[in-house]
Amino acid sequence: MSATADLPLWAALPVALLLLLGAGLTLAGSIGLIRLRDFYARVHSPTLGTTMGVSSILLGSIIYFSVTGSRLVLHEILIAIFMGVTTPVTLMLLARAALYRDRREGRDDVPPPGTHGAP
Amino acid sequence: MRRFLPYPLAALALLLTWLLLTGLSPATLLLGVVLAWLGTWLLRVMDPPRLRLRRFRVVLDLMWVVAAEIARSNFAVARIVLAPRPRTLSSGFVRIPLEMRDPIGLAALACIITATPGTVWVEYDSADGTMLLHVLDLIDETEWAGIIKNRYERRLMEVLA
């Protein structure tokens, strides 16, 4: 890759740090899927990768391609927006499905439906 | 104006998306304007509820608060996950009464809360206007109602007329 040689140090440092931060947070989120105990706790951990994990990696990508391509590259912003809008919907659906099943099985460690009892 | 451009915010968002993907040049700008205009006319068939944003400064304020909170809780949840000896977590559900009834505001609040690591919006009861929140590290139940209401709900209600 000739492009990596063109990258000056002042740009290479933040790019590397942002990539490490993003990858580290995403890894922590994935480890959480194993280490956390019940389903409702595990729902929380993928959000590490989809919020700051992906933002850091995309920011690194913006800096890298803007410096080496000598023009501002911003379409990574779209990736962040679409991730930010779609993953919460998936997580909410998963949590609701789990709650629905737990209620049907009559488990007593989940809260009952609202006071008016709409299913 | 309203008849020719029914959803100005959606048209602007479509145009910006198009320009980010294709790059800015006179030809792509022209095609993007046509596509955004056609796209919002298609949107009219679905007739979504109209979004009116007020107080642009509060919108920016809200985005800043959300970004700061997401960054802070990223490290909080990472610390919980990576703790060498996993401590017994007091994760649990909290039911929080909301004043907001606007569906767009509720959808935005649900996405904000779920995108923040450590909190997940689980359900909303439209009959009594309460939401069910699941918190990973639940220390004080009553504190959460105040956090949700003061930090997010108040600002969202200000923004949405």
UniProtKB/TrEMBL annotation, chain A:
Q: What keywords are annotated for this sequence in UniProt?
A: Membrane, Transmembrane, Transmembrane helix
Transmembrane annotation, as ranges:
12-34, 46-65, 77-99
Listed Pfam families = PhaG_MnhG_YufB (PF03334)
Domain of life per record: Bacteria
**UniProt xrefs under InterPro entries:** PhaG_MnhG_YufB
Instruction: Quote the protein name from its UniProt record.
Output: Monovalent cation/H(+) antiporter subunit G
User: From which organism does this entry originate?
Assistant: Sabulicella glaciei
Its gene is mnhG
Automatic annotation (TrEMBL), chain B:
Q: Does the keyword Membrane apply?
A: yes
Assign the protein's first listed, main location to one coarse class: membrane
Which InterPro entries does the record match to this protein? Cation_antiport_E (IPR002758)
Its keywords, alphabetically, are: Cell membrane, Membrane, Transmembrane, Transmembrane helix
Pfam families, A to Z? MNHE
In the bilayer, the protein is annotated as: Multi-pass membrane protein
Subcellular locations according to the entry: Cell membrane
Looking up NCBIfam families in the UniProt record yields: PRK08965.1-4
Name the family the entry cites.
Belongs to the CPA3 antiporters (TC 2.A.63) subunit E family.
Protein name in the entry: Na+/H+ antiporter subunit E
